[in-house]
Design a protein that fits this description.
With 446 residues, this protein is α+β, with helices and mostly antiparallel strands. The chain contains 14 helices and nine strands. Strands 1, 2, 3, 4, 5, 6, 7, 8 and 9 form a nine-stranded antiparallel beta sheet that branches.
Length: 446
């Protein structure tokens, strides 16, 4: 056996010569070509898939919908946010299983839904941008909760801003938000959601959106701010399994990894031998009791903080979720461009939902976002990032930039919901002044 596994480099070099090229040719002709063939096939398959997916993305017909909510349909704030949460639960119906043929022959991918809050020179608007075939689903979801809402198709506002920087007239700052690295390393931990902003006694909700809209309303001529949440509908079964695995880990349960079929076949003789040996010797099968006792002790010895985290994760996993990407862009004419004006409001708004013991989002300042800390070629690198950001934003791209992360409907509703005028004082927030009502069914026809 040792002779079979031994390899003498001197004998090998003597047979192929001292030239490294001769050695490489020998290896290639004597089985090494398999690795080259595998690499070529892998690159061809993935290159083909990417080519078809790019074709599919370019062929999509997008629609930009502006949403206005009447003033006199204001609901109780907490109840209204639960209504917005129901909107996102309904929009999860956009998820569809993609067949093998659609994926590899047509490049079909899951279509996204983009939730946006924008300020054009201080005028604030709520936008949903998605593929045209989702328009009926979006409108039905909103009208079910806000029957008097007005939804109008508009031109894409992002096309009015230059896409190549440096630009003679415009400047831009932007970033993507991603989970801050911490000891958890899991986006299945929740953020602070709107129930945490309700007073425990009175039930009054302090709208976390107020600070963002206040900052957005202060923009003047030549300034724009855009906030984007890309929602990717997902398979809920896979999400739930990941959540259950995390819950078991927090409880202290040891998850036994499932064996694959080759592993089961390989280990079957050994398992049979162990079972026979236990039967002959009289081995006991009660070896798992200490583990169970340890698990029970772990459950009863959780600290209040650990128990709170466990309960929060269970709540998050129990609700419908999406993969989500968050982008922000502030653009303006150079004469009036003041980065802190909108950026500080945005960062403060996002930080309201961060927690030190669970999930926190932070702005990316290296891979996609802009940074003043670059040492080499700072201006050129930041201009490259500006071009990428505006391209990703306009394309509503879910997979360019940082990877998306999990948010459930409650978390999304905390970030993106229709505000309440008695709490939000943004003077240029667009709202409908009157209701639209249906005429009486028995109205005479002249």
């Amino acid at each position: 056996m040792g002779d079979i596994l031994s390899f003498d480099i001197n004998v090998f070099l003597a047979s192929v010569g001292t030239s490294p090229f001769d050695a490489m040719l020998y290896i290639f002709l004597h089985g090494g070509w398999v690795f080259f063939a595998y690499a070529f096939i892998w690159m061809f398959i993935h290159g083909w898939l990417e080519y078809k997916q790019i074709q599919y993305v370019r062929s999509k017909e997008m629609v930009c919908l502006a949403i206005d909510i009447p003033k006199n349909t204001e609901k109780d704030p907490g109840q209204a946010l639960r209504g917005v949460e129901n909107i996102f639960a309904h929009l999860a119906g956009a998820h569809s299983s993609i067949s093998w043929t659609d994926k590899w022959m047509k490049g079909v991918i899951q279509d996204e839904i983009s939730l946006e809050i924008i300020s054009i020179e201080g005028r604030i608007q709520f936008i949903i941008n998605t593929v045209r075939r989702f328009r009926d689903l979006v409108e039905a979801s909103i009208y079910a909760q806000y029957p008097e809402a007005q939804i109008v198709e508009v031109e894409d506002y992002a096309k009015a801003v230059p896409t190549n920087y440096p630009d003679r007239e415009w400047d831009l700052w932007g970033t993507e938000m991603y989970p801050a690295p911490n000891q958890f390393k899991s986006d299945l931990y929740p953020i602070k959601t709107y129930p945490n902003f309700e007073h425990s006694m009175s039930g009054e909700l302090k709208d976390p959106l107020a600070v963002l809209l206040e900052g957005f309303s202060r923009l003047g001529p030549g300034e724009q701010a855009w906030l984007q949440f890309i929602l990717i509908p997902i398979e809920q079964v896979a999400y739930k399994k990941k959540g259950e695995a995390l819950i078991k880990k927090l409880k202290g349960e040891k998850e036994t990894p499932k064996q694959s079929l080759p592993e089961m076949l390989l280990l079957a003789p050994f398992n049979l031998f162990i079972a026979l040996a236990n039967g002959i010797i009289g081995g006991s099968s009660e070896t798992k009791k200490p583990e169970k006792d340890a698990f029970s002790a772990r459950i009863f010895n959780l600290t209040p903080g650990e128990r709170k985290v466990l309960e929060a994760v269970e709540v998050k996993v129990s609700k419908i979720a999406y993969l989500v990407k968050v982008r922000f862009i502030y653009a303006g004419k150079k004469a009036v461009f003041k980065k802190p004006k909108a950026v500080n409001s945005f960062i403060g708004f996002m930080k309201q939902m961060n927690t030190n013991d669970m999930l926190s989002l932070k702005p990316d300042l290296k891979k996609v976002g802009l940074s003043s800390a670059f040492w080499f070629f700072k201006d050129a690198r930041n201009n490259l990032h500006k071009n990428r950001l505006i391209k990703y934003y306009r394309g509503r791209s879910a997979f360019d930039g940082n990877p998306p992360h999990y948010f459930n409907c409650e978390e999304i509703a905390t970030y993106w919901h229709f505000p309440h005028t008695f709490q939000v004082r943004a003077p240029q927030l667009k709202k409908i002044e009157v209701k639209s009502v249906e005429p009486p069914y028995n109205l005479p026809i002249v």
